[in-house]
Amino acid sequence: MIASLTETDKILLEEIQKDFPLVSRPFDYFGSICGIPEDEVISKTVTLVSKGIIREISAIFNSGRLGYKSTLIALETPDDSIETVARTINSHAGVSHNYLRNYKYNIWFTLTIKEDKDFGEELKKLFHGENMVRYLILPAVKTYKIGVNFKLTGRNNKNAGETAPVIKKRMKLSESDRKLINKLQEDLSIIARPWEKMASELKISEQDLFDHIEYLKEREAIKRISAVLRHRKVGYSANGMACFNILEADIESAGKTVARYPEVSHCYQRKTHPDWEYSLFAMVHTRKEEECRLIIDGMSKKIGCSDYLILFSLREFKKERVKYFME
User: Fold this and answer.
1) What pTM does this model have?
2) Strands, E, within 84-220: which ranges?
3) Integer CA distances (angstroms), 186 to 56, 181, 190, in order
4) What does the pLDDT look like over 91-116, one tens digit per residue?
5) pLDDT tens column, 202-236
6) Cα-flanking dihedrals φ and ψ of residue 316, to 5°?
7) Does domain 7-58+174-229 have CATH number 3.20.20.140?
8) In the 8-state DSSP scheme, what is residue 172?
C-alpha cells in the first residue's frame, strides 16, 4: 500500500537517503533544507519509521574491506516448499535480501559470509545436507553501480548510487574499529543529538566519533550512513531484475551504459553457469510494471542485446542490511 505523503515528507525522505551529515544536530540540518524546525523533522522521522516507510537508518559497509564476501544465489524451489525454504534462508544472519521471482529459479537471495568460507559449503550447512534444491551461485565479477536515492519530488535530486567498483581487499581493523562498526549497525537514534549519544555509549568525544567515521569512510570501509526506504510504500511497486546475455567483449561498455539509468539501483557483471548464461544484471525500480518493461527494452536496444529476461519480485521474504562481526 502506497503511503500518503506531504511534499515536506517527500523532501525529507529524499534527503535522509543521502549520507547523514557529521554535525552535532543532523535533523536541524535536514530542517534547514525542508524549511521546518528541528523538532518537526524529528517528529516526522519518528512517524515515517512507525509507518514502515523508513526501514532503518544505519551504516552501509563495504563487505570486502571488513573481511567478508557476498554473492547472489538462486534456487529452483517446488511451489509446495517455497515457504519452508524461504524461512530456512532467512534464518541465516548473512542473508540480507530474499525474494520470490517469476522464473524457474524462483527464490533469489544475497548471502554474505567471511572471506575464508565457501558459499557451497555454507548452503549445505544451512540446509543440513538434506535434499537440496537446484541452485546457482552468482558472485559479482564487477560492480558498475550500487545504491539508489528514490526520487519523490520534482527537485533536481541526482541518484546517489556509487558507480565505482567496490574494493575487495580486506583492511586491518582495530578493536575500536570493530566497536564503532558494531555501533553503526544499530539504528541511529532519532533525537536532536544522535551522534553525542553514540559517542557517549562508546566512551569517546563527539569529535573523536566524527574523526573515526571519516577515517573509515576514507578507507572505504563505510560507504555511507543513511536511511533505507520500503520502496513499495513510496510508490515504487515494480522491482524488476534485468538479466542480459551479452558478449564478454561488450559487457564493460554495456555495464557503464546501464548504470547511468536513474531507475537502476544495482548493476553488476556476474559469473555465468551452464544453466544460466546471463552475465549483466541491473535492478530497475519504477512505479508500474509496464514502465519497468519499457525502460529495460530501451536499455536492451541501447546496448545491442536482445537476449534478456526481466524477473519481477513477487514477494519479499527478507530485506535488511547485513550485520558484521555478530558471530
Assistant:
1) 0.88
2) 95-101, 107-114, 134-138, 140-146
3) 9, 9, 12
4) 998 999 999 999 999 999 999 999 99
5) 999 999 999 999 999 999 999 999 999 998 898 88
6) -105, 115
7) no
8) P
